[in-house]
């Protein structure tokens, strides 16, 4: 089965620093990876999608990379703010031709003022 | 259209009772998904519709769970003979392309 692993359950960083979250996947490379943000008691919110032929994608203070050799995606938040505190989820397609997503457990980011 | 909506937001039921949840997707989205999420875990896929056709269903989904999307618009998820292990957040999402837009979820507590 296709798995997604987010190794850090929690990450604490100082305001203004860059947060880097890691997502590793198993088996074959997915066509794309997605990153979501989830606040307590709410549904996930889509942030970014990166395809396997893209090395990097940016959106405002967010940057995602995709390394098919390492089977890894990195998610960066630059100039972090306390409002960035949330759980960040990585997700992949569960299989070729499937639209269901397999999610990691998420990394809870806390930005300390 | 303000996004995906789900009803109810919270449901408390006694073990053995049946419950039904409703999801209204973003109107132009033809794909609809149901996920379940427990504390400290990511969402776990349950089932997927394209228009009114149920195309994928998790092998982990018990026969007590059934979902419908009768006219390709809203969807319902029913759980029969609820068990304490069914306590979770039930999330609905919709999409037209790859990214999925989630609703606020229905929090189910089985006592």
What do you see in this structure?
The complex is a heterodimer of chains A (113) and B (111). Chain A has no helices and 11 strands. With 113 residues, chain A is an all-beta fold. In chain A, strands 2, 4, 5, 9, 10 and 11 form a 6-stranded mixed beta sheet that branches. A 5-stranded antiparallel beta sheet of chain A has the order 1-3-8-7-6, with no helix packed on it. In chain B, strands 2, 4, 5, 6, 9, 10 and 11 form a 7-stranded mixed beta sheet that branches. A 4-stranded antiparallel beta sheet of chain B has the order 1-3-8-7, with no helix packed on it. At the A-B interface, strand 4, strand 5 and strand 10 of A face strand 5, strand 9 and strand 10 of B.
Helix content of chain B: under 10%
Tell me which protein chains meet in the greatest interface and how many residues each side has: A-B, 24 and 26 residues
Rounded to the nearest angstrom, the radius of gyration of chain B is 13 Å
Let me know the average pLDDT of chain A.
92
Structural class of chain A: mainly beta
Helix tally of chain B?
A: 0
Tell me the quaternary state. heterodimer
What shape does the CA trace of chain B take?
globular
The end-to-end span of chain A amounts to 40 Å
Distance between the termini of chain B: 35 Å
Percent strand of chain B: over 45%
Q: Poorly predicted ranges of chain B (pLDDT <50, ≥5 residues)?
A: none
């Amino acid at each position: 089965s296709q798995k997604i692993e987010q190794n850090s359950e929690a990450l604490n960083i100082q305001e203004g620093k860059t947060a880097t979250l890691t997502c590793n996947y198993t088996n074959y490379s997915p066509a794309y990876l997605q990153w979501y943000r989830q606040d307590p008691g709410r549904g996930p919110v889509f942030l970014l999608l990166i395809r396997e032929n893209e090395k990097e994608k940016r959106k405002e203070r967010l940057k995602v990379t995709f390394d098919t050799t390492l089977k890894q995606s990195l998610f960066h938040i630059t100039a972090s703010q306390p409002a960035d505190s949330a759980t960040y989820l990585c997700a992949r397609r569960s299989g070729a031709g499937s639209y269901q997503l397999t999610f990691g457990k998420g990394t809870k980011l806390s930005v300390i003022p | 259209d303000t996004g995906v909506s789900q009803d109810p937001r919270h449901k408390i039921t006694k073990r053995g009772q049946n419950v039904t949840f409703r999801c209204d997707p973003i109107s132009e989205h033809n794909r609809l998904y149901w996920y379940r999420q427990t504390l400290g875990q990511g969402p776990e896929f349950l089932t997927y519709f394209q228009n009114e056709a149920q195309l994928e269903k998790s092998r982990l989904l018990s026969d007590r769970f059934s979902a419908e999307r009768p006219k390709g618009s809203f969807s319902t998820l029913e759980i029969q003979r609820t068990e304490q292990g069914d306590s979770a957040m039930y999330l609905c999402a919709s999409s037209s392309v790859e990214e999925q837009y989630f609703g606020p979820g229905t929090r189910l507590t089985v006592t």
